[in-house]
Amino acid sequence: MSKTRSPLARLMIVMIFLALAGSITGGLHYYAVDLPHQNTIQPPTNSKSCTDPERGCGQVCYPLALNSRESYYDCLRDLGCC
User: Computed from CA positions of residues 74, 75, 79, 81, in that sequence, does the dihedral angle turn out positive or negative?
Assistant: First the structure.
């Protein structure tokens, strides 16, 4: 006597198989593509300060700082220091 499975049982087997296949594929993709990409990302490096003495911008714009803070930063921006 042959035992036939119900359609619901076959559907459950197919769903479990697809879930396992998707999990394995997702895990392989994570280790092959995503993880190496995450390891190679470097944080951005800091740029030089707006008041870097080598550029001399702070010395040129400092008298404006006595009048208002906004004009000091406008001066730095106009000179290309920031």
Answer: negative
Supply the pTM of this predicted model: 0.44
The domain total for the chain is: 2
Residue 77 in any domain: the answer is yes
Pull the structure tokens for residue 60. Answer: 């040129």
Quick one: angle between helices 69-79 and 57-67, nearest 10?
Answer: 150
User: Token pair of 82, please?
Assistant: 């920031």
pLDDT, tens digit (0-9, with 9 covering 90-100), for 65-76: 666 666 777 777
Residue 1 in domain:
no
